[in-house]
Design brief:
293 residues; mainly beta; ten-stranded antiparallel beta barrel; 14 strands; elongated
């Protein structure tokens, strides 16, 4: 079998091209610091979409009730899905992104390397930040009839929230390789959410909202029973504005913490629409789906 010179040339050219592309993609740079230390760093990944965007977490997160366990899945530029559950309450929410943007940023990360391996140096390098604008929808069920402690809103009631709104999500990610045994990664995303709240399937514990009093007259005592209705106790509409997000450790990029902070109106009519503080934090494990992690 004869192999022509043309085929050999084509194979060699392809091989050289692959090497060139791989070296360019690897983006190996040598960073020089004030003390003269030089650290060669391979920027393996700085795409904002390349993080470990799936997470399981545990903690106390307050969104219409105290949630203790949760799951997030973020598909960059496409959608975001989250589910959480707690004592006598649970919720699912998600986003569909209809506008996506990137912005040039400078990332700062600490690394160890060079002859002084015990010293940490801060690398600064150009990267991208992902931003997405999307529709938001959340369904949250809260049952406090037997467990009023399951929420920040004290009361004996049960309801389901339907929360349409809008979200702005931003995400960052980087993965650096200083050596075969010194590889670090970290990623994060954050959502800013503004929702309207519509309360449905409302019910109350009648006994807890029934008051018995006695009136004494010349003809004797009279019992007066006063029972509040659902509309006397619970609002029909409300609002919620909050920030939530997740960030991994700067290392393996697997340990993560989840946070929530914001304000929301109470479902209780006696509170009106006065904003109430909501906040929470959880810890968990982040990973990728669909490809080698």
């Amino acid at each position: 079998m004869k192999i022509s010179f043309k085929k050999i040339s084509y194979i060699c050219f392809t091989y050289i091209l692959v090497l060139v592309v791989n070296n360019a993609w690897a983006q190996v740079e040598t960073f020089t610091f004030d003390d003269g230390t030089k650290i060669p760093v391979e920027i393996v990944d700085k795409s904002p979409d390349g993080g470990r965007n799936t997470a399981l977490y545990f903690g106390g997160l307050g969104i219409g009730g105290i949630k203790l366990v949760g799951f997030d899945y973020y598909k960059p530029t496409k959608y975001f899905f989250s589910a959480m559950a707690g004592p006598n309450n649970y919720m699912v929410d998600g986003n569909y992104f209809f506008a996506n943007f990137t912005k040039d940023i400078t990332l700062s990360q600490s690394v160890e390397g060079g002859p002084n391996s015990g010293i940490k140096y801060v690398l600064r390098f150009p990267a991208k930040k992902r931003s997405s604008l999307g529709a938001h929808l959340c369904l949250n069920h809260l049952n406090q009839i037997n467990n009023p402690e399951a929420s920040f809103n004290w009361g004996w009631f049960k309801l389901t929230e339907v929360n349409p709104g809008i979200s702005w999500l931003s995400a960052k990610n980087s993965k650096l390789k200083m050596s075969e045994t010194n590889i670090r990664q970290g990623s994060s995303y954050k959502r800013i959410n503004l929702d309207a709240i519509f309360y449905s399937s409302r019910s109350i514990d009648i006994e807890s909202y029934t008051r018995v009093s006695y009136k004494f007259t010349d003809t004797g005592s009279h019992t007066i029973v006063t029972t509040k209705s659902v509309d006397d106790v619970l609002n029909k509409i409300g609002y919620r504005f909050y920030i939530d997000g997740k960030a991994t450790d700067w290392g393996k990029g697997r340990f993560s913490y989840k946070y929530t902070i914001g304000v929301q109106s109470s479902p209780l009519k006696e509170d009106g629409l006065t904003p109430k503080m909501m906040a929470g934090v959880g810890v968990g494990y982040s990973f990728r789906t669909g490809k080698k992690d």
